[in-house]
């Protein structure tokens, strides 16, 4: 009798678990890892560099108290010059402006901020600090970089996503042509989470102790930020959003945990765009298992990239996953630096993390997990539009597109270099 009761209990538990939808599963899983969710958020997707900078500049112009910026890098070009000029004007109006950038991120781009630029920026009243400057013997530069992209204005609205501050998000580059990426603007309780992340890093780097109610969202806002791109979905200000924040030694596995569980939870469809598709063994296995469960897995990668070798590894992984039943779309007009996943049309993520070892094992990263079908469908439609400029990978065009040497290079990178790419 006890045996039959045990079997019945296990069957009931299994039935209840399988009855859960992917969105409720991922929320419960992330809550178990300490991630909090709020339900009063608006999320506006900014689908291009032009949209992002137009919207963000308009919001900064209306700032009353504080503007906080955390970026991997501010490239020393025209868009950064416009931004720092605007921020200098806000300082004259009494607004506190604080900016963080990563030392490796600054030094590794071909138009870094030099000492003379930083001197001028600081002379204009902008507080700006560098996280881990690049110094001999440079070994430390490999680990724990600040790869986040966060802007918080008056503790009222926030921006996050995949873009730094650079002209090429609008103009592209000679090497890759068009540069595609995206950001989002959040208006709601999760602004406070992003502000906490920024202030923790700011205090760590600057040695200051900035905090207090003035930096956080109030129940009744001081003013309405006007003339921004609206969230036109039916769920505006009712979206469930959580912020997954990767901090080395503290929440070191949270981004990987999210992606693996999001893929494992999928019951119908997965759509994924990634610029650096080097993948850990757990992610590869999760994607293959999803196909075996009958989930339609669609992956979009770019044929062009801004760095060598890493894309070869990604192409090798894409070919293997194509053979396992994934639909792999190769985007041709330019470089898709977008980092998003959409699951079952129910939830998605927009943020800074790539699917490579740096993002998943080393760097400071942050993603917004948006549990909302309206926002997810907006990204689904973006994915479907981009298919028109892509080819579907198959065995024939794989061998026509990739030479024997390129295929070997990808195999070598995937087998031996994945933990370092």
From TrEMBL:
What keywords is this UniProt entry annotated with?
Answer: Signal
Leader sequence segment = 1-19
Q: Does the keyword tRNA-binding apply?
A: no
- PLD phosphodiesterase domain segment(s): 142-169, 332-359
Pfam families xrefs: PLDc_2
Q: Which InterPro entries is this protein grouped with? A: PLD-like_dom, PLipase_D/transphosphatidylase
Where on the tree of life does the source sit, at the highest rank?
Bacteria
Membrane: present as a keyword of the record?
no
Give the protein's recorded name: Phospholipase D-like domain-containing protein
